């Protein structure tokens, strides 16, 4: 009987083509430890263009963390150490970086994702940060010259400064997604500095109708506007008329008042829904 071809003997380009579709857990804990040819293929920068950390559980007691410590013979797990490994393997090739929503990421880790590490980042998803860390976001964003899409778990206190840096440094910037209390000053910064936005998402935010109309008047090139489950406006006739020129407008679940019937015109940011 003719011997079947072995997986480890596959052409290197074929292996790389397969491995670049895998997640970081497989690339760090699975593929490299199976055989030498797979290990070599897993080091190709093409496998590390999308760095999605969101599905990984970095808690000390998680299966992922314990397995990582075992595979790399570590006495303790460090998120910063994990980021250094990913940076070394990617060799600056990453175009997308998604941080875990809450646990693990610090401003130190974020600066490791600066232009020195991944100069070609086009999409970044930032985690929730402490208030003292948020002031550094404008400085950080300014380093991502190729940035096109930015997602944030919450609106930073330095939002206006961040938008200013995006306008100055990110010439291809086209999309923003964040949650929070969207105030008039925030909208003015967007329409003044980022009038050519293509995609904007404020789902589950506090967004008064006045601010929503300002966005639609100021960002004429919007192709998608998502404001689902917001508090502060209803999709009435005026709103629908203003959005008629936008290809995709999503406002399902948005309403003028909160569930208790309280007028949210003076909405406290702590009220806003957070994912």
From TrEMBL:
SUPFAM superfamilies associated with the record = F-box domain, RNI-like
- InterPro entries the record matches: F-box-like_dom_sf, LRR_dom_sf
Task: Name the domain of life.
Answer: Eukaryota
Query: What PANTHER family does its record include?
Result: F-BOX AND LEUCINE-RICH REPEAT PROTEIN 6 (PTHR38926:SF5), F-BOX DOMAIN CONTAINING PROTEIN, EXPRESSED (PTHR38926)
Protein name according to UniProt: F-box/LRR-repeat protein At3g48880-like isoform X1
Q: Which organism is it from?
A: Phoenix dactylifera
């Amino acid at each position: 009987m003719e011997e079947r071809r072995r997986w480890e003997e596959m052409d290197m380009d074929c292996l790389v083509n397969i491995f670049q579709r895998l997640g970081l857990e497989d690339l760090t804990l699975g593929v490299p430890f199976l055989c030498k040819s797979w290990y070599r293929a897993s080091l190709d920068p093409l496998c590390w263009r999308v760095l999605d950390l969101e599905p990984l559980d970095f808690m000390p007691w998680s299966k992922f963390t314990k397995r990582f410590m075992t595979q790399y013979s570590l006495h303790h797990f460090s998120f910063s150490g994990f980021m250094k490994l990913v940076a070394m393997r990617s060799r600056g090739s990453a175009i997308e970086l998604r941080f875990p929503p809450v646990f693990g990421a610090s401003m130190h880790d974020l600066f490791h994702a600066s232009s020195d590490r991944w100069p070609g980042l086009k999409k970044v998803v930032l985690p929730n940060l402490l208030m003292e860390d948020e002031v550094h976001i404008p400085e950080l964003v300014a380093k991502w010259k190729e940035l096109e899409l930015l997602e944030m778990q919450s609106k930073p206190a330095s939002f206006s400064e961040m938008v200013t840096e995006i306008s100055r440094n990110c010439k291809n910037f086209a999309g923003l997604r964040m949650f929070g209390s969207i105030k008039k000053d925030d909208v003015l910064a967007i329409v003044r500095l980022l009038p050519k936005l293509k995609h904007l998402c404020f789902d589950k935010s506090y967004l008064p109708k006045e601010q929503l109309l300002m966005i639609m008047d100021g960002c004429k090139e919007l192709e998608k506007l998502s404001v689902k489950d917001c508090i502060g406006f209803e999709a009435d006739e005026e709103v629908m008329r203003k959005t008629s020129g936008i290809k995709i407008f999503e406002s399902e679940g948005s309403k003028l008042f909160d569930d208790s019937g309280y007028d949210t015109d003076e909405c406290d940011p702590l009220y806003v829904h957070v994912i």
